[in-house]
Design brief:
With 198 residues, this protein is mainly alpha-helical. It is 60% helix and 0% strand. It has a domain at 31-158. The relative contact order is 0.04.
Length: 198
Amino acid sequence: MARSSSRRFGERPDLSVPGGGPKMSPHYDPDAFGRFSEAIARLLGTGRFLVAQSVLVLGWIVLNTVGLVKHWDPYPFILLNLAFSTQAAYAAPLILLAQNRQDDRDRANIDRDREVAARTQADTEYLGRELAAIRLALADVVTTEDLDDSLARMAKLVADVRPSPESSPQSPAEPQSLVSPGALTSPDSRPGPNHQQK
């Protein structure tokens, strides 16, 4: 009462503090219960369980129809029907729980595969870009085949420009001297300025 009187009208309580006391609910480990449900679902889906259940049902019917023992479940076998109904009522949710856990695992695997595929695609695109850049860089590089072709063309051009030995004259012409014969005489034999011609 004092708590409610200390609050003003229209003021909201602090929602970060729990209002009620501790709840008495059964605590269980969902992972352990899920593993248990998967084990039961795995057992119910085997041929061994079907054979064992068939043998049990046949033995139940035989023992309750033959007069050698006391009939604890006479025809129409109501107790047997109740056992089958209880088994079906528990088996269906356990199988559904096991399927839900398997779906969660499959979803996690699909997400992981999607991430791996995205990384692989990104790596492939990166490598493709790198190969394209390398191809463009190598487009300007001269290869040995290009060098061989260039050398062959140059050798052909040199052979076309050089005169053949048949077209050259037998005796080469004497080289003409650019210096006159009088220029090779000694300086003493040259006429000086006081020299008079006869």
